[in-house]
Amino acid sequence: MFSLDTLWRARYRLLEAKRRRVGSPRILVVGVCQAGSIAKAMRFLLPDAQVDFISAFTVSRRYRRLADLIAKADGYDAVFTSIYLPPFKDGGTITALRARPNVRVIPTIVFPAYHPDLIHVGVQDHATLRGLVSGPMGHSHSAVVLYAYLAGFSEAEALRLFAEPTFERLGYYDFWNESVVALRNLGQEAGYDLDASLNRWSRRGCFMHSINHTKLFVVADLARGLLTKAKIPFEDCDLEAFLPDDLAELGSWPVYPEIAQHFGVAGSALFFKAETARSGPARTMTRAAFVAAAYAYYANRPRGDLVNGRVQRWRSDPAVADFLHAAAGHAPAPATLAGGGATLSTGHLAGHAS
Known about the structure:
Layout: H1 4-19, E1 26-31, H2 33-45, E2 50-55, H3 59-62, H4 66-73, E3 78-82, H5 94-98, E4 103-106, E5 118-119, E6 122-125, E7 130-132, E8 141-142, H6 143-150, H7 155-159, H8 164-169, H9 175-190, H10 195-203, H11 216-229, H12 257-263, E9 271-273, E10 283-285, H13 287-299, H14 309-316, H15 318-328
Parallel strand pairs: 1-2, 1-3, 3-4
Antiparallel strand pairs: 5-8, 6-7, 9-10
Helix pairs in contact: 2-11, 6-14
């Protein structure tokens, strides 16, 4: 039986079809969360166009074979897709889709420089994107807090690690150049020059909500840039005045004041948590509240699930472990195996980091 909501949606689609002018473009956007926001921006820039979005996280359930998705895409004037696509039954990959003449790749924006402490925890299946451990900020975790928990630090000791000497010792102030190189490579992979974009975005301060969620003005800029590359004319408007920032609603990691001062941007010690059915309404958390919540989450997970490459390298490096124990005011670190220090990772192309 049809619900009122189903009938309303059908009526809306009929009215939309009548409203669209003959000859207005049909656009398909396929991709991760960044692509969903870009599709919404394109709808505002092209009020007479049909702009459809298919999530990369569900596309293989709707289209078992890539050939089926390509058949769908061939019915559009322009297709924009993220570089990440899940496995299909026929073994098809992004290479086959992007070979179509109407397909252009959306550059994946991953930029950890403003949030060098943000990591993901768990062993992720790159095909399904499952396996990550959730915490008070969803899949985003603090490397120093995870280290502190695994090392047996108290919450008060963990809080002492949020300090400039710690961030300097861990190389957090050195992430900028590596982030720029990684972003440039992601742009080249998509055939999109991100150098000029980075200059524009960085002049406005921090342009990321987290390492892989961009702020609204980046979404708007990419939507315009992609339409321009596809030679689709649009009526420009102040998208930021009325377009909702969907990626902000997923939560926002703060630019720590110590990091912000180094880069000359606005900073904060408050974590913005998204609304979820499990954890309640959206709210901000102080560092102390965040550490307490993280410890509570970790205490309910098997210790073997709390894995992260960077934190493991710290734990295996005697010099780093001794420094962190001293910075926290904890007892000297136990004997550890020799290992590497902290390094930047932008993760795989769906935008996750380790």
